[in-house]
Amino acid sequence: MRRAAAGEGYGQATHQMYEDENEHLVDGLKDKVTALKSLSIDIGNEVREQNKMLNSMDSDFDSSGGLLGATMGRLQRMARAGHSKIWLYMFLFVLFVFFVTYIVLKFQR
């Protein structure tokens, strides 16, 4: 009988040791789950902000595309009209702007 009682005490101590270890592991797991939840919430918030920004950029590009399309249409009408002097002046103006930009950037260093 004595041996059975001694074996029972050892079994209870081992059981308590396993319970303590499980409690410790459960606490560590809770901390990891909390950190993961926080991270996933932050990722969700960032995704929503990025979607808002992309939608804003999409509408800006759409309006820019419309403006550019209208400008190209006017240029095509002007080209069909055959105003060669206007084209010459435009080419010279663009050449002048590139030249001035080159000079400014070259002497800026």
TrEMBL record:
The keyword NAD does not apply. Residues 16-78 form the T-SNARE coiled-coil homology domain. Belongs to the BET1 family. It is a single-pass type IV membrane protein; Single-pass membrane protein. The lineage of its organism: Eukaryota, Metazoa, Chordata, Cephalochordata, Leptocardii. The chain crosses the membrane at residues 86-105. Required for vesicular transport from the ER to the Golgi complex. Functions as a SNARE involved in the docking process of ER-derived vesicles with the cis-Golgi membrane. It is found in: Endomembrane system; Endoplasmic reticulum membrane; Golgi apparatus, cis-Golgi network membrane. This is BET1 homolog.
